[in-house]
Amino acid sequence: MDPRLLTLRSAVDRLRRDLRNYPATLADREIAERELVALDGVLATGVPDTAALGQALLLIAAAAGSVSALAAGVHQLRQAIELFGVPHQPVQRGRPATR
């Protein structure tokens, strides 16, 4: 089996476990859980499409927000997805509006 798939499986499992153990209300928890299930399905088919991986990562990161208890799991997932050639896109902070 492709070691990248094993790494991604491990990251998905960890983040799923972290979400399950996070006791507070998370507004978009269902979105994150749905995307993790979708990633499981993708893993079953072999090497995943990089666009689908990138989209899943964006949705999961947005759903987890800035919850520090989930940050390590989201980071591990991002690193695993980058193994498939999905580049890290830094977030641009507060650019001034032009008129």
Automatic annotation (TrEMBL):
Q: Which UniProt keywords apply?
A: Membrane, Transmembrane, Transmembrane helix
Pfam families this protein is in? DUF5955
What transmembrane ranges does the database entry give?
A: 52-74
What is the protein name stated in its UniProt record?
A: DUF5955 family protein
